[in-house]
Design brief:
The chain has 77 residues and is α+β, with helices and mostly antiparallel strands. Helices cover 35% and strands 27% of the residues.
Length: 77
Amino acid sequence: MDTRTKRMLAGAAAYAAADKSDPFAYARAIAHIKSGVAGVLPNGSDAFYSAEEYPEQRTLEDGTTFNVPAYRNICRP
């Protein structure tokens, strides 16, 4: 598997993880990649499907803090 394909698949997985409310996000992204609707940008810099994961700290009412993965820079075609 070439680097561009790995980047596209990683972008689709990150996008799906960012949109947990949509159970078909990953399947749709893969279908778009396979059909040619989505792909690598012309300059080869990134996939159309992507999201950046970062740790977010949240606090419960009792004061307990914990880290959860959150996402920003969510992109889709």
